[in-house]
């Protein structure tokens, strides 16, 4: 499974790492705080998993699939700006187990790129 | 993610441009810098004289005594007066110029109100004095209550909420109580997407589930969408009227009827009452509860963020449920204050004591000064001034609802059509350099880069013309792609401030190491 | 009309400019019948300044002024001498008529004053941080309970019996509709607060225990012991201070282990004003900052690198988080916070300490004088400047009789606890630096006479 994308600008990798896309971080502006979930939290697809604060907005990040949180990105506590500078790698948000294998109904990179070009 | 950053605001600091000439003091003429009091003096000292001798406390108190005094500086009177006077000169204020903030009603604060509020008979009385020793105070509350009820055409009023949001809570709690009294557990409140944030926040705190109603292309509540959503689970709708786009909700009466038909209640956010005071009674539009911001419509001063006062007028259905305390007038002219002891059916209390008395005296003085005719004139002039601004600028700024008719007391523009890289924030900051406080920006959220201008009735025509000319000039700079606008303001006491840093590394108190 | 600058000529010209034939054309959206055709009938017309002042003065003169008589009331609102410069400074138009500092470049006056206020409050309460004010002590108290609920994710709180009954009633009203469980009962007339009973009420479901300090009867709870007990069960200690001057004498709650400290700041700078507007103080530990309600002012720099101040951490608040905000509060008590801050800047920690000791000394003098009256007993073993005396009978008629004799002699417990008959012989008495020997003698004489039944 390659990286998959949601219509709400989350991405998820085969190992269950979840983050937001570069498009999303550019919409948010400077990120000031990331409220990451605790390990062990059970998530259903569409649940609010993370809240990302910028100066004048707070955005909910939804779980792309059903599963359980295994760890959150500890680096974000002192450096939330990682989500701005490197949202698709070092600025990952959390990792989760995938209850049912590869999540269904998501876009691949090409489809996501086409999707945001229409927005 | 849900809509990331619905307002579209992003921080931009602009280019640095330190002052050309430095001075030895750091001041420039009458532009005065001022350190913190903790930097002016050490953590000891006092600027107050005491006559009484210093005595040791009672032995029984020994176990509780402080080990050391709080580390707080005490400065002499000259130093304190200088410190705060110098600080005050770094503030814009209504007393200096127009404050055209949409939804805020920044009108002139009459100084008679300050004189009245300071009469010792009002300022120097304790809330728990025996009631027969405060008949005049109870009389003020009672008289103001009657005015508010008469101006709105409602049945009663709860006077104790301390601000608008507190009033919203008061109204919604009355609705919950009314539902409870008839054994009804419905718990959904419908809130337009253009509503002020306090509306859904308050509904949630009152224990309701909040759902959003969309707006039409004409900026008003989508009646069809609202009607489709109405059902036995809807406890109430919260409607701002005039709404946050500065428009009168034409369907208000119909909305009220339909909501009542399914057994729900209508809460009206009265923040924009200035547009209709004395001309329209919200009670005639079928509402059940409405908070009034005394610090908006009735001129009590904003004081840099507060205090406010938010009495809530109530329909007959909701008056049956009461919070304490409230005043009652007897045939012989005597007033009582009904507290817990006297009304066992009251369903609770919103705060200690009796409400914002200091704002009641000010608001009553304001109302008596204007009278019924003056208040109607207030609404007319407020609406005329806003329409004057709307028509004067709609050729340079997009006014999304201007084609559909007049606005009420505030004019709404957007930054659509500005060149890439220029947005509402730049116009706002450019206006600061022109010597004005900007209008409300990025609210309501339903239009892009909103600019909401409420001149109020206390702006003269000449004052409006000056403001219009400046806003036009700044807008034209933006349209021309003038990059220097992105560094505005350059003439204010401070340039744009780094709000990202403030949020990432919060420093909320002064610490020794600086 | 003196507050309306538009002239008839202006109105005519402006109507033409906007293309409206008459003013009511601009009200065309109002449904038929709802637009009034003239000023509301039965209400008076506009009036001159002189007439309004006369009317209000007549109402003011029907009130007994605290500063003109011997005065001993407290119970959550306190009378101190406010230095003359405080009121002058807050009436500067740049402070009085300024708005919430959302455009920080032209609001550094308000913002710097708020930063100083937050620092003063945090140091006074002994907390790491403090916010830019709440409406008053009672609503701040409820907000602290709600915050403790969020932090601990528990839905129950224990209110000490020493909490001001208005504060308890406010919390009960809010809790009921928020689905929060509160345990509370009225106090008993013991010389010291029953900390032990409070401790046994804390369990693993308790979000916080709320303790007033000094309490409603003027007694002083052992906050350190209560903090330890609360923390042992995973609960927070919320301390409530209704008289901040007392903190010039007794240890700050934050230092003793309180997690959240709220208070009523009215006694410094703000004045009695028949109950409002007052000033809610709110301080807490730094680790809870993102759960705090209310506005926060923070330090930063501007584009030229100069230090400046801004409202910050706004994503907690209603205008951004809407239904998920930490509170629905918008307007706070800005001008009252400024008044408090100015008064505090004059006093300093040294002055506050001196003031607190003087108030305590005046209270001791009052208590010992009252204890000489047959049938009158002082309840408290320890107190700052407010204490409870026990009378031979219901204090309410006694208070009324004293008022008829021109003495405002304290707050009858029956006024605060109308349904708790066992408390009705209690009278709350407060002294301050304003209390003179003459005041004390007058109180003693009036109380003695009232108890003898010489006044109706």
Could you characterize what this model shows?
The complex is a heterotrimer of chains A (119), B (514) and C (456). Chain A has helices spanning 22-28, 82-85, 109-117, and strands spanning 4-5, 10-12, 17-20, 31-35, 42-43, 48-54, 57-62, 67-72, 94-98. Chain A is an alpha+beta fold. Chain A has one domain (4-99): RNA polymerase II/Efflux pump adaptor protein, barrel-sandwich hybrid domain (OB fold (Dihydrolipoamide Acetyltransferase, E2P), Beta Barrel). The mean pLDDT of chain B is 95. Chain B folds into two domains: 112-367, Aspartate Aminotransferase, domain 2 (3-Layer(aba) Sandwich); 372-501, Aspartate Aminotransferase, domain 1 (Alpha-Beta Complex), CATH 3.90.1150. In chain B, helix 5 packs parallel to helix 11 (357-393), helix 6 (164-181) crosses helix 7 (198-205) and helix 11 (357-393) packs across helix 13. Chain B has 14 helices and twelve strands. In chain B, the strands form three sheets. A seven-stranded mixed beta sheet of chain B has the order 1-7-6-5-4-2-3, sandwiched between helices. By secondary structure, chain B is α/β, with parallel strands linked by helices. In chain C, strands 1-7-6-5-4-2-3 form a seven-stranded mixed beta sheet, with helices on both faces. In chain C, strands 10-11-13-12 form a four-stranded antiparallel beta sheet. Chain C has helices at 8-18, 49-60, 84-90, 93-96, 108-125, 137-152, 165-178, 195-200, 223-232, 318-321, 334-371, 395-404, 413-416, 437-452; strands at 129-130, 156-159, 181-183, 206-212, 236-241, 260-264, 280-284, 297-301, 307-311, 377-378, 386-390, 411-412, 426-430. The model of chain C has no long low-confidence stretch (mean pLDDT 96). The longest helix of chain C is centred in the C-terminal third of the chain and has 38 residues, at 334-371.
């Amino acid at each position: 499974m390659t990286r998959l994308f949601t219509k709400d600008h989350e991405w998820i990798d085969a190992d269950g790492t979840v983050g937001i896309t570069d498009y999303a971080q550019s919409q948010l502006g400077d990120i000031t705080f990331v409220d990451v979930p605790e390990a062990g939290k059970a998530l259903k697809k569409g649940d609010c998993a993370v809240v990302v604060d910028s100066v004048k907005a707070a955005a909910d990040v939804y779980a792309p699939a059903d599963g359980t949180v295994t760890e959150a990105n500890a680096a974000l506590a002192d450096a939330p700006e990682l989500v701005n500078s490197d949202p698709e790698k070092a600025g990952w948000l959390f990792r989760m187990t995938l209850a049912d294998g590869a999540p269904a109904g998501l876009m691949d990179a090409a489809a996501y790129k086409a999707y945001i070009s229409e927005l | 993610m849900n809509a990331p950053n619905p307002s579209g605001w992003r921080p931009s600091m602009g280019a640095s441009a330190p002052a050309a000439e430095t001075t030895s003091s750091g001041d420039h003429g009458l532009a005065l810098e001022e350190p913190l009091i903790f930097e002016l003096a050490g953590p000891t000292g006092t600027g107050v004289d005491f006559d009484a001798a210093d005595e040791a406390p009672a032995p029984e108190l020994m176990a509780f005594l402080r080990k050391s005094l709080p580390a707080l500086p005490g400065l002499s009177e000259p130093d304190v007066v200088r410190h705060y006077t110098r600080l005050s000169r770094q503030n814009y204020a209504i007393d200096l110029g127009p404050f055209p903030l949409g939804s805020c009603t920044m009108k002139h604060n009459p100084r008679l109100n300050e004189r009245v509020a300071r009469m010792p008979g009002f300022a120097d009385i304790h809330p728990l004095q025996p009631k027969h020793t405060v008949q005049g105070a109870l009389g003020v509350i009672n008289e103001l209550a009657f005015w508010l009820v008469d101006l709105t055409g409602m049945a009663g009023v709860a006077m104790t909420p301390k601000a608008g949001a507190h009033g919203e809570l008061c109204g919604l709690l009355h609705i919950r109580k009314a539902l409870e009294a008839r054994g009804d557990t419905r718990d959904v409140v419908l809130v337009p997407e253009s509503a002020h944030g306090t509306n859904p926040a308050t509904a949630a705190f009152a224990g309701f589930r909040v759902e959003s109603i969309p707006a039409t292309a004409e900026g008003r509540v989508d009646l069809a969408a609202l009607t489709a959503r109405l059902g036995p689970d809807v406890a109430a709708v919260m409607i701002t009227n005039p709404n946050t786009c500065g428009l009168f909700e034409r369907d208000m009466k119909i909305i009220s009827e339909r909501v009542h038909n399914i057994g729900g209640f209508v809460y009206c956010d009265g923040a924009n009452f200035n547009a209709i005071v004395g001309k329209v009674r919200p009670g005639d539009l079928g509402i059940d509860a409405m908070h009034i911001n005394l610090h908006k419509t009735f001129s009590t001063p904003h004081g840099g963020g507060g205090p406010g006062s938010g009495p809530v007028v109530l329909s007959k259905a909701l008056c049956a449920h009461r919070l304490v305390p409230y005043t009652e007038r007897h045939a012989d002219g005597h007033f009582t204050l009904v507290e817990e002891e006297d009304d066992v059916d009251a369903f609770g209390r919103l705060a200690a004591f009796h409400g914002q008395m200091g704002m009641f005296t000010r608001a009553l003085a304001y109302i008596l000064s204007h009278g019924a005719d003056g208040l109607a004139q207030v609404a007319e002039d407020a609406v005329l001034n806003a329409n004057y601004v709307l028509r004067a600028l709609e050729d340079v700024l997009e006014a999304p609802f201007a084609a559909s008719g007049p606005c009420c007391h505030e004019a709404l523009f957007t930054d659509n059509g500005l060149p890439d890289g220029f947005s509402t924030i730049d116009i706002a900051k450019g206006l600061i350099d022109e010597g004005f406080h900007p209008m409300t920006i990025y609210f309501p959220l339903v239009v892009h880069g909103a600019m909401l201008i409420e001149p109020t009735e206390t702006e003269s025509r000449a004052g409006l013309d000056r403001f219009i000319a400046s806003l036009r000039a700044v807008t034209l700079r933006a349209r021309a792609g003038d990059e220097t606008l992105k560094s505005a303001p350059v003439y204010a006491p401070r340039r744009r401030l780094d709000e990202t840093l403030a949020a990432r590394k919060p420093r909320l108190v002064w610490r020794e190491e600086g | 009309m003196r507050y309306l600058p538009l002239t008839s000529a202006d109105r005519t010209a402006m109507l033409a400019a906007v293309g409206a034939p008459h003013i009511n054309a601009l009200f065309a959206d109002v449904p038929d019948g709802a637009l009034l055709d003239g000023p509301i009938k039965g209400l008076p017309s506009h009036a001159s300044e002189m007439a309004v002042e006369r009317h209000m003065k007549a109402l003011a003169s029907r009130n007994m002024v605290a500063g003109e008589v011997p005065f001993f009331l407290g119970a959550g609102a306190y009378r101190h001498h406010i230095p003359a410069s405080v009121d002058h400074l807050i009436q500067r138009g740049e402070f009085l008529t300024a708005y919430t500092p959302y455009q920080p470049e032209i609001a550094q006056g308000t913002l710097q004053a708020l930063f100083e206020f937050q620092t003063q409050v945090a140091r006074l309460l002994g907390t790491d941080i403090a916010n830019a004010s709440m409406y008053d002590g009672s609503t701040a108290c409820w907000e602290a309970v709600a915050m403790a609920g969020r932090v601990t994710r528990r839905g129950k709180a224990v209110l000490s019996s020493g909490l001001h009954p208005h504060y308890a009633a406010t919390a009960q009203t809010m809790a009921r509709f928020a689905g929060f469980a509160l345990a509370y009962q009225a106090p008993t007339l013991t010389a010291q607060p029953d900390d032990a009973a409070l401790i046994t009420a804390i369990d693993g479901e308790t979000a916080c225990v709320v303790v007033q300090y000094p309490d409603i009867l003027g007694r002083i709870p052992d906050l350190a012991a209560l903090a330890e007990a609360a923390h042992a069960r995973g609960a927070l200690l919320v301390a409530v201070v209704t008289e901040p001057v007392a903190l010039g004498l007794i240890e700050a709650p934050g230092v003793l282990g309180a997690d959240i400290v709220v208070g009523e700041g009215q006694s410094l700078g703000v004045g009695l004003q028949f109950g409002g507007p007052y000033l809610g103080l709110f301080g807490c530990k730094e680790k809870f900052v993102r759960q705090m309600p209310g506005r926060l002012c923070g330090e930063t720099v501007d584009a030229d690198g100069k230090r400046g101040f801004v409202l910050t951490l706004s994503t907690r608040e209603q205008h951004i988080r809407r239904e998920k905000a930490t509170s629905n509060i918008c307007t706070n008590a800005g001008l009252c916070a400024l008044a408090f801050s100015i008064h505090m800047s004059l006093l300093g920690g040294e002055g506050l300490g001196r003031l607190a000791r003087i108030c305590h000394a005046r209270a001791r003098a009052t208590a010992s004088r009252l204890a000489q009256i047959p049938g009158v007993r002082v309840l408290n073993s320890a107190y700052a400047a407010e204490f409870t005396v026990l009378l031979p009978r219901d204090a309410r008629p006694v208070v009324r009789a004293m008022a008829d004799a021109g003495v405002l002699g304290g707050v009858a417990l029956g006024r605060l606890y109308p349904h708790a008959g066992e408390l009705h012989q209690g009278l709350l008495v407060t002294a301050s630096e304003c209390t003179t020997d003459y005041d004390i003698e007058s109180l003693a004489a009036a109380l003695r006479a009232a108890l003898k039944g010489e006044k109706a």
